[in-house]
Amino acid sequence: MNKENKWYLDDSEDEEIDISFKEYDLTSAPNDFNIKTIYDFIESGVLKIPGFQRNFVWDIKRASKLIESLIIGLPVPQVFLFEEGRNEFLLIDGQQRLMTIYYFVKQKFPRKEKRTELRRIFAEKGSIPDDILHNKEYFTSFDLKLSEKLPDAPNKLKNLNYSTLGDHKTAFDLRTIRNVIIKQNLPPEDNSAVYEIFHRLNSGGVVLKPQEIRSSIYHSPFYEMLFRVNLNDNWRKLINRPNPDLHLKDIEIILRGFALLLDSKNYKPSMTKFLNNFSFKAKSFTKESIDYFEDLFISFIDEAINFGEGAFVSSKTNRINVSAYEAVFKALAEKAFKSKNTNVKKAIRENLLALYEDSEFSEATEKDTAGTKNVQKRIERAKQIL
């Protein structure tokens, strides 16, 4: 996305992600798993395919060619897995291939208009529930769509599905795919290794945004809460965007507010690394804490709507000022957070306008927004003025 077309104002995305030289203690080992084993891994949850990684984008013709290649014994590209724990693997690269296999065995192919929703369901459930799988609004039959080789020599696999493969079914089930399993040898302090691997493997083709990668690697009940509150009507009005962002930037905005509310004392550039570390910590948040954070955020936006719709959107550029939002969120919610209640400060529109007109605050939101000095300055001025 060109910077001129961004719907948010934030220069932290321009940071270099590889801020400092760092060596990792990793091992990688190749394993040839057959199709049946790979399917069983996905179905049982041993192999996690992050639903928020990216939508399934292949059409049925491309997916059919992969299945054909496997049946007739042609090699297919290897996939990369990250070993999170004993019998716990996270898919880093190869989602389109493995999801094609999963859908083919299920004999269902996802409808294009439902793939974003299916991505969410898969992330939350770890698989597709039967009631969704057999719903024609979500899926059509996965019959192989293959072109004829020659007019007088029809492709024997055309229009077949998993249950009608006949003699080819056993060969398909036993066909292997090379899986490179990567393991971090020392206990991870921040899980940065898997982020770096994911980022570098996905640097070609469609480049993923930092939050897309982050949401895959650090997905947790806390992240599920972020996705829930992101749909709140008052939140959508405050950022003047009726629909969630496909690249999850609105999720990142909410995440930044929570990260600074809970962990600002540990903030230092880059913002990307700070959010990664916070997301890693958030995987251990208790259900009780997450429920409280959700109630706190809802109380905040229910109060912040008094600022007026589009309160965090610049009237001149129509962009969301991310730096302003996170400072306002911390200023209004911090006292309630420290007291472990949801009594956020009152949102007075005149005070918000005064904050936006404050020269020190404006200067801290216009350049070097991820610098420690400017982050602290924005928070300080927001507390004083609001």
Q: How does this structure look, described?
A:
By secondary structure, the protein is of the alpha/beta class. It has 2 domains: 26-184, no CATH class; 208-385, no CATH class. The chain contains 17 helices and 9 strands. It has helices spanning 35-44, 60-72, 95-106, 115-125, 130-133, 168-174, 192-201, 210-217, 221-229, 233-238, 249-263, 271-282, 287-304, 322-339, 349-357, 359-366, 372-385, and strands spanning 8-9, 26-34, 47-48, 79-85, 88-93, 108-110, 139-141, 176-184, 320-321. The chain has a 5-stranded mixed beta sheet with strand order 2-8-4-5-3. Strands 1-9 form a two-stranded parallel sheet. It has a two-stranded antiparallel ribbon with strand order 6-7. A hairpin with a 2-residue loop joins strand 4 (79-85) and strand 5. Helix 11 crosses helix 12 (271-282) and helix 11 crosses helix 14. The longest helix is centred in the C-terminal third of the chain and has 18 residues, at 287-304. The radius of gyration is 24 Å and the shape is elongated. The protein starts with 7 loop residues before the first strand and ends with a helix. The relative contact order is 0.12.
Number of domains: 2
* Rg, alpha carbons: 24 Å
Structural class: alpha/beta
DSSP helical segment count: 17
Spatial shape: elongated
Arithmetic mean of pLDDT: 86
What's the SSE pattern?
Answer: EEHEHEEHEHHEHEHHHHHHHEHHHH
Percentage beta strand: 5-15%
Write out the strand line-up for the largest beta sheet, numbering strands in chain order.
2-8-4-5-3
Total strand count, please? 9
What summary fits the major beta sheet?
5 strands, mixed
Distance between the termini: 34 Å
Give unreliable regions as ranges: 16-21
Helix content: 40-55%
Pfam families: GmrSD_N (PF03235)
Protein name: GmrSD restriction endonucleases N-terminal domain-containing protein
Domain GmrSD restriction endonucleases N-terminal: 35-218
